[in-house]
C-alpha cells in the first residue's frame, strides 16, 4: 500500500474533480481525498508515503485505437513522413537496414506524385513502403516477387501499388511468411515502452492478427505486458474462437474484447466511401470494403461469443453501412474514425448507442481535406463537439499513422489547427475544451473500449496515473 500526498491530483475530468491525496493498494485506488487522511491510512498499514510537493497527477492516457505491432515495426522502419521529392524518398530508403526495407509515411500530395515500383527498383533489396494512412503501399519488383500477389483491381502490377483488399493479402503474406512470432513479440515490446514514455498506459489494439494474438498471450503469460490491452481481432481469428467456443477473455493486462471490421478506406487515398463524389476527383466516391450483409453476419457471430465489434468508417456512406449493419444485428458497438458525419447521422448514432473512437491529429495531417470533400461538406469533418453530445467518445492516434504523443492529439482537439489548416475556418465551433479532451483521452477511451475500471483515479479503478510538473489543464 502507498499514499500520494500534497499533490494536485485530478481523479477525473468529467466531472472535474481534484484531490490532494490518493491511496493505492494492489495497483488499485482505495481512497481519493484529503492528504492527511491518505497519510493516516497508509501509516496504519506500514506502507509508503510519497510527498508530491505540489506536483500534478492525472489518469494515464488511454489510446482507444492503435496498432501495437505496426507501431513497434514503424520504430524500426524508414520514416518517410515529410518527404518532398522522389530523390529525398530514395535517399532515406537507401539508409534502411535489414533483408527487406520497410518504410512508412509517404504522401503523394507532399511528393507531388505517387511513388512507383520503377522508382523503388533503384534499390537492390525488396522494398515495401506504406502511405501514411497504411491503406496503400508500393512495392518494388524484388518485393512483388516475394509476395506473388494475384492480379486484382486493388493491385496495379505496372506501378507496384497495392491497396485495400490486395493490401490485406500482402500483409497476410508478410505476417505468415516473412515475420516470425519473435518479431511480433519484439515489436509489441518496443511499442509499449515507447507508449509508457509518453504517458500512455492503456490501449485498444486494432486488427490483431494470429501472430500478434499469440505474442500478446505470451507477453501476458510471462508478465511482460506493461500496458493494458483491449484487443480487437481480425475476423480470421473469430473462426478459431468459434471452433473452440472461446468467449471474451479478461486477464491481468490483456482483454480479448472484440472484432475489427471495415466499410471503407481513407480520405488520403480517396477510398473513404462518400455519398457524393470527391470534390477534387468527381470520377470516384470511394470504395466499399464490406457491405451491410457481410458486416451484420460477422456481428451476429461476434455477439454469440460476447465480443464487441469495432467498424472502420471514415466516409459518410461508409458510416451509413456501419450503422445499418449494427441495427440489423441488433448490436451497439463502436465506430472507428467517423470522420465525415452528416447531421442526420448524429441522431442515429445516439439512438443505436454507438461508441466512437476518433483521431484529432487527422485535422493536422489531412490539411488538404477541404479541397478533397468540398466546402459544403467540410463542416461535417471531424465534428468532435457534436459527436461528444450524442455518444461516448474516445481519443486515439491510430499509431503509427499519427504520432503516438497524446499531447499533440489534445492540442489538435482544442485548437483544431488554427492558423495552420483551412478546415479550422469551417469547423472552429467543434473545438473542445482541455477538460473535454482529457476526458476523452482517459475515461472516454476506457468506456469506448469496455475497460470500465480504467481512466479515473477513484476507488476501485486501476491506479494508472502520470505525474507532471505543470497543470495539464493549462495549455501552452
UniProtKB/TrEMBL annotation:
Database matches in Pfam families: Amidohydro_3 (PF07969)
Domain of life: Archaea
PROSITE patterns: TATD_1
Signal sequence, renumbered to the chain: none
CDD domains in UniProt: YtcJ_like (cd01300)
InterPro entries: Amidohydro_3, DNase_TatD-rel_CS, Metal-dep_hydrolase_composite, Metal_Hydrolase, YtcJ-like
Record domain Amidohydrolase: where: 48-475
One Gene Ontology MF term: hydrolase activity, acting on carbon-nitrogen (but not peptide) bonds
PANTHER family in alphabetical order: IMIDAZOLONEPROPIONASE, PROTEIN LONG AFTER FAR-RED 3
Stated name of the protein: AepA exoenzymes regulatory protein aepa
Organism name: Pyrococcus abyssi (strain GE5 / Orsay)
Phylogenetic lineage: Archaea, Methanobacteriati, Methanobacteriota, Thermococci, Thermococcales
Amino acid at each position: 500500500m502507498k499514499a500520494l500526498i500534497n499533490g494536485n491530483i485530478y481523479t477525473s475530468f468529467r466531472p472535474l474533480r481534484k484531490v490532494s491525496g490518493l491511496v493505492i493498494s494492489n495497483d488499485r485506488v482505495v481512497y481519493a481525498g484529503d492528504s492527511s487522511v491518505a497519510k493516516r491510512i497508509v501509516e496504519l498499514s506500514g506502507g509508503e508515503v510519497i510527498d508530491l510537493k505540489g506536483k500534478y497527477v492525472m489518469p494515464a492516457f488511454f489510446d482507444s485505437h492503435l496498432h501495437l505491432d505496426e507501431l513497434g515495426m514503424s520504430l524500426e522502419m524508414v520514416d518517410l513522413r515529410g518527404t518532398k521529392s522522389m530523390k529525398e524518398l530514395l535517399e532515406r530508403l537507401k539508409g534502411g537496414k535489414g533483408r527487406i526495407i520497410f518504410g512508412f509515411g509517404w504522401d503523394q500530395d507532399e511528393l507531388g506524385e505517387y511513388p512507383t515500383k520503377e522508382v523503388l527498383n533503384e534499390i537492390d533489396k525488396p522494398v515495401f513502403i506504406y502511405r501514411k494512412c497504411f491503406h496503400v503501399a508500393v512495392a518494388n519488383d524484388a518485393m512483388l516477387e516475394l509476395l506473388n500477389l494475384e492480379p486484382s483491381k486493388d493491385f496495379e502490377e505496372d506501378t507496384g501499388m497495392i491497396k485495400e483488399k490486395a493490401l490485406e493479402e500482402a500483409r497476410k503474406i508478410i505476417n505468415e511468411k516473412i515475420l516470425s512470432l519473435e518479431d511480433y513479440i519484439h515489436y509489441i515490446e518496443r511499442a509499449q515502452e515507447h507508449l509508457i514514455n509518453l504517458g500512455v498506459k492503456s490501449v485498444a489494439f486494432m486488427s490483431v492478427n494470429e501472430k500478434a494474438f499469440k505474442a500478446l498471450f505470451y507477453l501476458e503469460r510471462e508478465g511482460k505486458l506493461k500496458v493494458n490491452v483491449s484487443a480487437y481481432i481480425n475476423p480470421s481469428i473469430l473462426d478459431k474462437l468459434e471452433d473452440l467456443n472461446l468467449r471474451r477473455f479478461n486477464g491481468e493486462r490483456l482483454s480479448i474484447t472484440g472484432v475489427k471490421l471495415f466499410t471503407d478506406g481513407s480520405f488520403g487515398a480517396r477510398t473513404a466511401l462518400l455519398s457524393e463524389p470527391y470534390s477534387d476527383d468527381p470520377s470516384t466516391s470511394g470504395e466499399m470494403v464490406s457491405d451491410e450483409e457481410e458486416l451484420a453476419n460477422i456481428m451476429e457471430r461476434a455477439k454469440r461469443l460476447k465480443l464487441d465489434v469495432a467498424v472502420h468508417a471514415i466516409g459518410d456512406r461508409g458510416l451509413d453501412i456501419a450503422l445499418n449493419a449494427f441495427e440489423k444485428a441488433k448490436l451497439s458497438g463502436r465506430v472507428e474514425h467517423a470522420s465525415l458525419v452528416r447531421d442526420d447521422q448524429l441522431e442515429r448514432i445516439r439512438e443505436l448507442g454507438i461508441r466512437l473512437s476518433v483521431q484529432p491529429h487527422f485535422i493536422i495531417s489531412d490539411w488538404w481535406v477541404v479541397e478533397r470533400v468540398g466546402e459544403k461538406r467540410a463542416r461535417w469533418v471531424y465534428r468532435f463537439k457534436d459527436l461528444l453530445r450524442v455518444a461516448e467518445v474516445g481519443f486515439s492516434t491510430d499509431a503509427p499513422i499519427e504520432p503516438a504523443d497524446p499531447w499533440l492529439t489534445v492540442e489538435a482537439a482544442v485548437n483544431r489547427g488554427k492558423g495552420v489548416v483551412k478546415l479550422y475556418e469551417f469547423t472552429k465551433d467543434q473545438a473542445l475544451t482541455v477538460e473535454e479532451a482529457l476526458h476523452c483521452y482517459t475515461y472516454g477511451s476506457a468506456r469506448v473500449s469496455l475497460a470500465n475500471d480504467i481512466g479515473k483515479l477513484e476507488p476501485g479503478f486501476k491506479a494508472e496515473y502520470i505525474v507532471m510538473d505543470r497543470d495539464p489543464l493549462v495549455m501552452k
